[in-house]
């Protein structure tokens, strides 16, 4: 765990002390995600015959709106948990509290507005930047691992991949936890590799890479949410009665498997139930929308004959070529 990567100072200049200044690991990972993601997005834009500078211009608005949107989402969900005065605490982003889906919605909204104003096809832009979003999430969850947020539930001490954070973490210290942050980082890396190495060169309509990313990430997040233990909003789906105190070993069978996977949990003495976090419910909605987009957009592009790449620039006419040759 390295919440601070490097520390500089303090320095004394003109009898005034400056510092110390610290390079925080989470901020460093976010900056790295932005730079690396922009590099890949510009390459993809150039491959498709689009202007890479358009991607750079949009990237500034994406990083700005995504941070604002992710903070607003967190404030709305956890308003009652903010320390008084709550309105002032809402602006204390350095104390933690960013929700990915809020940032995603804000970034998509900013992208739609930008593409409408600049007359750039939104679906083409979405396919260009979607692999970079997956890669950026990988860096972001690595930053979560370094600072201790988004932590998992307590796990058996002999679990081969258990993480135990030292004192000073913003989460739980001194207890073996399921490695939810590195697991999501590896999952996002796998999604990036699939989108970048396979799908982007084989897509059949504009928007396919975006739809695939939303479905894959939502599925990954849905599963990992069962093992996360940081404060989040939940909604109970249903409850039922069973023998009190059942565990995965004593229950056995499918019920034991579901207990082990944290799908079912004991909410009260002998009352078991299943609940979904707000991220899981959002992921289900996003996945359904992505599937609907896949069906609608693929048919629409096929009927209209929309090309996945930008049209090649027209070849120079023979007369123009001859005039240029004579001038030389």
Question: Short summary of the structure?
Answer:
The chain contains 11 helices and 7 strands. By secondary structure, the protein is mainly α.
Topology of helices and strands:
Blueprint: E1 4-8, E2 11-13, E3 16-18, E4 21-24, H1 25-47, H2 52-77, H3 86-89, H4 100-118, H5 122-147, H6 180-197, H7 208-224, E5 234-241, H8 248-251, H9 253-260, E6 265-268, E7 271-277, H10 278-304, H11 318-327
Antiparallel strand pairs: 1-4, 2-3, 5-7, 6-7
Helix pairs in contact: 1-2, 1-5, 2-4, 5-6, 5-7, 6-7, 7-10
What would you note in describing this structure?
This protein has 328 residues and is mainly α. The chain has a domain at 4-229. The chain is built from 11 helices and 7 strands. The chain has helices spanning 25-47, 52-77, 86-89, 100-118, 122-147, 180-197, 208-224, 248-251, 253-260, 278-304, 318-327; strands at 4-8, 11-13, 16-18, 21-24, 234-241, 265-268, 271-277. Strand 6 and strand 7 form a beta hairpin. The chain is globular, with a radius of gyration of 24 Å.
């Amino acid at each position: 765990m390295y919440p601070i990567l490097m520390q500089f100072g303090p320095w004394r200049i003109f009898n005034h002390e400056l510092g110390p200044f610290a390079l925080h690991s989470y901020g460093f990972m976010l900056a790295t995600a932005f730079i690396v993601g922009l590099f890949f997005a510009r390459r993809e834009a150039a491959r498709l015959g689009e202007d890479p500078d358009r991607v750079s211009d949009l990237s500034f608005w994406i990083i700005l709106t995504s941070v604002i949107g992710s903070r607003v989402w967190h404030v709305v969900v956890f308003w009652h948990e903010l320390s008084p005065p709550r309105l002032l605490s809402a602006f204390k982003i350095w104390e933690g509290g960013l929700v990915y889906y809020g940032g995603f919605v804000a970034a998509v909204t900013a992208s739609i507005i930008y593409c409408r104003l600049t007359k750039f096809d939104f679906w083409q832009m979405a396919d260009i930047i979607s692999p970079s979003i997956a890669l950026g999430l990988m860096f972001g969850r690595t930053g979560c691992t370094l600072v201790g947020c988004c932590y998992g539930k307590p796990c058996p001490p002999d679990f081969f991949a258990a993480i135990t954070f030292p004192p000073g973490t913003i989460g739980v210290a001194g207890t073996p936890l399921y490695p939810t942050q590195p697991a999501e980082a590896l999952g996002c890396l796998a999604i990036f590799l699939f989108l970048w190495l396979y799908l982007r060169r084989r897509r059949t309509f504009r928007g396919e890479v975006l739809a695939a990313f939303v479905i894959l990430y939502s599925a990954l997040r849905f599963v990992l949410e069962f093992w996360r233990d940081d404060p989040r909003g939940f909604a109970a789906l249903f409850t039922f009665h069973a023998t009190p105190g059942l565990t995965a070993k004593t229950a056995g069978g499918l019920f034991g498997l579901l207990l082990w996977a944290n799908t079912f949990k004991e909410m009260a003495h002998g009352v078991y139930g299943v609940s979904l976090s707000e991220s899981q419910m959002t992921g289900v909605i996003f996945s359904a929308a992505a599937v609907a987009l896949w069906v609608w957009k693929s048919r629409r592009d096929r009927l209209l004959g929309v090309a996945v790449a930008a049209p090649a620039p027209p070849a120079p006419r023979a007369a123009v070529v001859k005039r240029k040759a004579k001038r030389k």
